[in-house]
C-alpha cells in the first residue's frame, strides 16, 4: 500500500515512520518545490504531483493551506482523504465557523468582517475585548489582533488593511472578530474516523502555549465527563464533514463547559504524546483510516506529556537518563522559533508524570524553556 502526503514536514515524516511496520510506503509532496520526495530524506525526489498521484493508493495532507488546484487534482483521482472540503474548512476560519454553527457546536460569539464599518459593527454587537483573526493563512498566533478599547480601533484597522494588502489574494481575505473567552485552560481532543464512520478518540489533553505557540501537552488519566463532552462535539463535526482520518479539535474550557476554538483536519501537535502514551499513535491511526484499515484503540496506556523543542537543535543528553523519556527530532535546519522536535515523557500516575515533567524541564536550558519550567511547577502543585 502506498500513501502520498501533501506537505513534506515533520507530520509527513512521522506518518512515514509509523507506516513502515504496516507495510505502507509514504511519499510526500513538497508544495514549495512542487516535487514528490521521501519524507525521511527530502533530497530523494520521485517526480511531480501527477507521478505522486499515480504512485498512491491513498492521498492525504499534513496541513490545511494547500493550493486549491492541487487539492482538486488529488480529489479527482478519488484517493484523497479527508476530502478537499474538510481540508479547506481547516484553512479558512469562515468555513470553520460555518461548520461549527451548522453542527450546533459551542464556540465563541463572532462576526466576519471585511470593512471598517463591519469592524465598528462587531465592536458594538459583540462588545470588547475582541480577538481578530485573519480568515486565511493565520496560524500559531500570526495574523491576529486584540482590541480592548474602542480608541485602538483606527490603528488596528490600519494594520489589518496592511495585512490584507500583503496577502496572496487580498480580495479573498477577511477577519473573524471573536469575543475574548475568559477560559480556565486550553484543551484539545484528537480522534480518528474511518470511511464507515467508526471512531477512536484519544483522551482530552491540556495544552500550554507560550506566545501563542503550543509548548507542552499533558495527557492524564482524568475527567471522563469532559472527554465525553468533547467526544460528542468531535462526532458532530466529523460526521458533518464525512471525515476520514485524524481530526483535532482545540477547545477553551470555561468551568465545566467546552467551547471550540479551532479544528485541524490532520494529525496535530497536541497528539504527538500518543507515540508513547496511547495504544495506537495518531500517525498510525491516520494511515489506517486513510488506507481503509480498521482503527486502533486510542486508549491512554499511561499518563504522558509532550514538550515542543522550538528553535533548538540539541538538548542536554541527561534528559534521556530520566526514565520513560523519548526524543523525536525532525531533522530540520535550526531557525529561531522553528518546531525542531519534541520530547515525550511518561509515568505510571498523574502525580509521577507532573513530577517527571518538572524534573525534565529543570534539565532543559532555561533561556529556551523557562516558561515550561514555570508551567511544570504550577502543575506539580495541583497534583
Ligand atoms: P488560535 O490561532 O485561534 O489558536 O489562537 C491562538 C491563541 O490565542 C489561542 O491558543 C488562545 O490562547 C488565544 N485565543 C484565541 N482565540 C481566543 C478567544 N476567542 N478568547 C481568548 N483567547 C483566545
Describe this entry's structure for a reader.
It is a single chain. The protein is α+β, with helices and mostly antiparallel strands and 383 residues long. The chain folds into 3 domains: 79 residues, Rossmann fold, CATH 3.40.50; 71 residues, 2-Layer Sandwich (Dna Ligase, domain 1); 197 residues, ATP-grasp fold, B domain (D-amino Acid Aminotransferase, Chain A, domain 1, 2-Layer Sandwich), CATH 3.30.470. The chain contains 12 helices and 18 strands. The strands form 3 sheets. Strands 10, 11, 12, 13, 14, 15, 16, 17 and 18 form a 9-stranded antiparallel β-sheet that branches. A 5-stranded mixed β-sheet has the order 4-3-2-1-5. Helix 1 crosses helix 10, helix 4 packs across helix 5 and helix 5 packs across helix 8. The longest helix has 17 residues. It is globular. The N and C termini lie far apart (45 Å). The mean pLDDT is 95. Bound molecules: adenosine monophosphate. The site of adenosine monophosphate (AMP) has 12 residues, from strand 7 and strand 15.
Q: How much strand content do the residues show? A: 25-35%
Q: Please report the first level of CATH classification, the CATH class of the largest domain.
A: Alpha Beta
Largest sheet: 9 strands, antiparallel
Q: For the residues shown, what is the average pLDDT?
A: 95
Question: How many separate domains make up the residues?
Answer: 3
- Please give the number of β-strands: 18
By CATH, the superfamily of the largest domain comes out as ATP-grasp fold, B domain
Spatial extent as radius of gyration: 21 Å
Helix/strand-derived class?
A: alpha+beta
H/E element sequence: EHEEEHEHHHEHEEHEEEEEHEEHHEEEHH
The percentage helix is 25-40%
Distance N to C terminus: 45 Å
What's the architecture of the largest domain in CATH terms? 2-Layer Sandwich
CATH topology of the largest domain: D-amino Acid Aminotransferase, Chain A, domain 1
Tally the helices: what do you get? 12
The dominant shape is globular
Poorly predicted spans: none
Distinct ligand kinds: adenosine monophosphate
Amino acid at each position: 500500500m502506498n500513501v502520498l502526503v501533501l506537505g513534506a514536514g515533520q507530520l509527513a515524516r512521522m506518518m512515514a515512520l509509523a507506516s513502515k511496520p504496516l507495510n505502507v510506503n509514504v511519499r510526500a509532496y513538497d508544495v514549495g518545490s512542487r516535487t514528490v520526495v521521501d519524507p525521511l530524506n527530502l533530497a530523494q525526489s520521485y517526480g511531480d504531483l501527477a507521478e505522486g498521484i499515480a504512485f498512491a493508493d491513498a492521498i492525504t495532507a499534513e496541513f490545511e493551506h494547500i493550493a486549491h488546484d492541487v487539492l482538486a487534482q488529488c480529489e479527482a483521482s478519488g484517493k484523497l482523504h479527508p476530502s478537499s472540503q474538510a481540508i479547506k474548512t481547516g484553512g479558512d476560519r469562515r468555513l470553520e465557523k460555518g461548520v461549527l454553527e451548522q453542527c450546533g457546536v459551542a464556540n465563541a460569539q463572532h462576526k466576519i468582517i471585511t470593512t471598517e464599518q463591519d469592524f465598528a459593527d462587531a465592536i458594538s454587537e459583540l462588545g470588547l475585548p475582541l480577538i481578530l483573526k485573519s480568515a486565511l493563512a493565520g496560524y500559531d498566533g500570526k495574523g491576529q489582533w486584540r482590541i480592548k478599547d474602542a480608541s485602538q480601533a483606527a490603528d488596528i484597522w490600519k494594520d489589518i488593511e496592511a495585512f490584507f494588502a500583503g496577502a496572496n489574494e487580498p480580495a479573498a481575505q477577511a477577519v473573524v472578530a471573536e469575543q475574548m473567552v475568559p477560559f480556565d485552560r486550553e484543551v484539545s481532543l484528537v480522534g480518528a474516523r474511518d470511511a464507515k464512520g467508526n471512531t477512536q478518540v484519544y483522551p482530552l489533553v491540556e495544552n500550554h502555549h507560550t506566545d501563542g505557540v503550543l509548548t507542552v501537552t499533558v495527557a492524564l488519566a482524568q475527567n471522563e465527563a469532559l472527554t465525553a463532552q468533547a467526544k460528542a462535539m468531535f462526532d458532530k463535526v466529523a460526521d458533518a464533514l464525512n471525515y476520514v482520518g485524524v481530526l483535532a479539535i482545540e477547545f477553551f474550557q470555561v468551568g465545566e463547559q467546552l467551547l471550540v476554538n479551532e479544528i485541524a483536519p490532520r494529525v496535530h501537535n497536541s497528539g504527538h504524546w500518543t507515540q508513547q502514551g496511547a495504544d495506537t499513535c495518531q500517525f498510525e491511526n491516520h494511515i489506517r483510516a486513510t488506507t481503509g484499515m480498521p482503527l486502533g484503540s486510542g486508549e491512554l496506556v499511561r499518563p504522558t506529556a509532550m514538550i515542543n523543542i522550538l528553535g533548538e537543535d540539541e538538548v542536554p543528553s541527561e534528559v534521556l537518563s530520566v526514565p520513560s523519556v523519548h526524543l523525536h527530532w525532525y531533522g530540520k535546519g535550526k531557525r529561531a522559533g522553528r518546531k525542531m522536535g519534541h520530547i515525550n515523557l511518561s509515568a505510571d500516575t498523574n502525580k509521577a508524570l507532573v513530577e517527571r515533567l518538572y524534573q525534565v524541564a529543570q534539565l532543559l536550558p532555561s533561556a529556551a524553556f523557562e516558561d515550561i519550567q514555570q508551567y511544570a511547577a504550577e502543575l506539580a502543585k495541583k497534583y
